[in-house]
Write a structure and sequence with these properties.
The structure holds two protein chains of two kinds. Chain A is of the alpha/beta class. Chain A contains ten helices and 25 strands. Chain A folds into three domains: 27 residues; 249 residues, FAD/NAD(P)-binding domain, CATH 3.50.50; 130 residues, FAD/NAD(P)-binding domain, CATH 3.50.50.60. Chain A is 33% helix and 26% strand. The N and C termini of chain A lie far apart (51 Å). Chain B has one domain: Cytochrome c-like domain (Cytochrome Bc1 Complex, Chain D, domain 2, Orthogonal Bundle). Chain B is globular, with a radius of gyration of 14 Å. Chain B starts with a helix and ends with a helix. Classes of the chains: A alpha/beta, B mainly alpha.
Chain lengths: 424, 96
């Protein structure tokens, strides 16, 4: 009898849950709930797809002006000629085939009270829930001298595409013996280990192609992501080639002169043959327009639903969001997108959003056959996305080269997997 | 015994039905960042959909305890409780 009674109780719970869902379903069938996603990167494209998977009845529109997405992860390999830019590029064809409307235009305004988005042509798009995934914008002139014109001389290459290829051409054109300078910003910024992966792969390029050259990293920080692993690998693979100048050693760049490719710090001037300025950043522009950024320039969010703490009905995911312990990475953006999609689908059916658990894994290449990683597990705690205690961490400090080679293979497999899930 | 078996089968079928239709449990959606959702992708990381639930549970618990060496799974598994691991495994086992 006892197991039978338990079964009955379980079924009873199931029936109750079904009944609770029914009115919402009836509503959704009569008028499909409308979700608009702005931004077709890892966050936005993942979210649009996950919304359709969560509930096929949702009317999902993805607003993205570019016909092609160019991925940043692995773009450091493009810079040093280990990979072609087309391997980074993806179309929205498969996403459209999922029944998602692609609006190939720019979002220019948001009215959170009217729940309406304005597009570049003046058209308005009504929504029941809005998801903003605008990525980053460069804070032009936050670093004196670094404006859009300066980026043509001293590329940032922090939004993949033409900038990636410009930096590549400059490195290819540089004479052996030249000085390459990378300027790394203060936290927070897109892809925390990115400047150091870039330094590593440029060092690999210089060592193999232009061995008399040197690389200096001028840093606005005293510590950086995966620091011990990077520095250990640099002394092992590129001894004497990379010099890292920390904030306390005078690494913070205070201005640049694009005409002479000079980077100025409080302690001196560095005239580079190739200068890669990774400038300060903020949430993409539409976040500001929508009123979801705070004074930091980034977007405070509820850690369970990714709904803005500043505007109801607007969710923010990916690099633009203040995601607590989660870094601004493609993996994190994809993980957040799926959690946000589940929450949005639940909120639209008046269900209570479940508490998510999120993961991040970031690989960095120090050489083509030398990979390192950081991983983390996150949950909402005390109003922010916090590390789950005892989880996560870096690749082991002491590991055989076979482990590093395995992580380089896993890094590429990760890229194939995530880009297939998002765009394939 | 038969009753117990029938009850067990009942539980499994309910779990399977719930797993196939319901929202993924906490943490499950994040796995496909590395574990391919599609058979199109070539990766040394295994697909989880349709795998035996008990095998997934054992693998994650072994990564967590250190009984099995991992590259990143040892670090990720430590962020999940037994209950969460079981729910994730049951959900993936029910996927195609």
């Amino acid at each position: 009898m006892k197991p039978g009674r338990r079964e009955f109780l379980k079924l009873g719970v199931g029936a109750a849950a079904g009944a609770a869902l029914f009115p919402a379903r009836a509503r959704a069938q009569s008028t499909a709930a409308r979700v608009v996603v702005v931004g077709g990167g890892f966050a936005g494209a993942s979210c649009a797809r996950a919304l359709r998977q969560a509930d096929r009845r949702l009317a999902v529109t993805l607003v993205e002006p570019n016909p092609t997405f160019t991925a940043c992860p692995f773009s450091n390999a493009v810079i040093v000629g280990l990979r072609e830019l087309r391997a980074q590029q993806f179309t929205y064809d498969r996403i459209a085939a999922d029944g998602i409307v692609i609006a190939r235009t720019t979002a220019t305004g948001v009215d959170p009270q009217a729940r309406s988005l304005t597009l570049a042509d003046g058209a308005r798009l009504a929504y029941d829930r809005l998801v903003l995934a605008p990525g980053i914008d460069i804070r032009w002139n936050a670093l004196p001298g670094y404006d859009q014109a300066a980026a043509a001389q001293m590329p940032h290459a922090w939004q993949a595409g033409d900038q990636t290829l410009l930096l590549r051409r400059q490195l290819e054109a540089m004479d052996d013996g030249g000085l390459v300078v990378i300027s790394a910003p203060a936290n927070p910024f897109r892809c925390p280990p990115g400047p150091y992966e870039r330094a590593s792969l440029i060092a690999y390029f210089l060592k193999t192609k232009k061995p008399k050259s040197k690389l200096i990293i001028l840093d606005a920080k005293d510590a950086f992501s995966k620091q011990r692993l990077f520095q250990q690998a640099w002394s092992e693979l590129y001894p004497g080639l990379i010099e890292w100048v920390s904030l306390s050693k005078g690494g913070s760049v205070t201005s640049v002169d694009p005409a002479t490719r000079t980077l100025v710090t409080d302690f001196g001037r560095h005239q580079a043959k190739v200068a890669n300025v990774i400038p300060p950043q903020k949430a993409g522009r539409i976040a500001d327009v929508a009123g979801v950024t705070d004074r930091s320039g980034w977007c405070p969010i509820d850690p369970a639903t990714f709904e803005s703490k500043l505007q109801p009905g607007v969710h923010v995911i990916g690099d633009a969001a203040i995601a607590g312990a989660m870094p601004k990475s493609a993996f994190a953006a994809n993980s957040q997108a799926k959690a946000c999609a589940a929450a949005v689908a639940q909120l639209l059916t008046a269900a209570t959003p479940s508490t998510p658990k999120l993961i991040n894994t970031c690989y960095s290449l120090v050489a083509p056959d030398y990979g390192i990683s950081v991983a983390g597990v996150y949950h909402p705690a005390n109003g922010v996305l916090a590390d789950v205690p005892g989880s996560g961490g870096l690749s082991p400090a002491e590991a055989p080269r076979a482990t590093r080679a395995a992580e380089a293979v896993l890094a590429e497999a990760w890229f194939r997997t995530i880009t297939d899930e998002v765009f394939g | 015994m038969l009753r117990l078996l029938a009850a067990a089968i009942g539980l499994i079928s309910i779990a399977a039905a719930v797993g196939a239709s319901a929202e993924p449990p906490a943490g499950a959606a994040a796995c496909s960042g590395c574990h391919p959702a599609s058979t199109r992708v070539t990766s040394p990381v295994p697909r989880l959909a349709g795998r035996d639930s008990a095998a997934i549970v054992k693998a994650i618990q072994d990564f967590r305890s250190g009984a099995r060496a991992g590259t990143v799974m040892d670090r990720i598994a430590k962020g999940f409780t037994d209950e969460e691991i079981q729910a994730i495994a049951a959900w993936y086992a029910a996927q195609k």
